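for the recovery benchmark. tokens below, seq after
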């Protein structure tokens, strides 16, 4: 069952905090732009490289 205690404002604060951290890390040179993009990517690169598409006929 889904969590019924979801708070949009809490989620927005957490996302902004993550953005702020990314900006600080980038400005301080702790991470480069390519690594930051990979860190924030939807699918991690190592998983994407191993992924295989199955059952193309079900994708419309």
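predicted aa per position
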């Amino acid at each position: 069952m889904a969590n019924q205690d979801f708070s949009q404002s809490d989620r927005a604060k957490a996302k902004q905090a993550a953005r702020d951290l990314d900006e600080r890390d980038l400005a301080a040179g702790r991470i480069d732009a390519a690594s930051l993009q990979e860190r924030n990517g939807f699918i991690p690169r190592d998983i994407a490289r191993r992924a295989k598409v199955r059952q193309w006929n079900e994708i419309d």
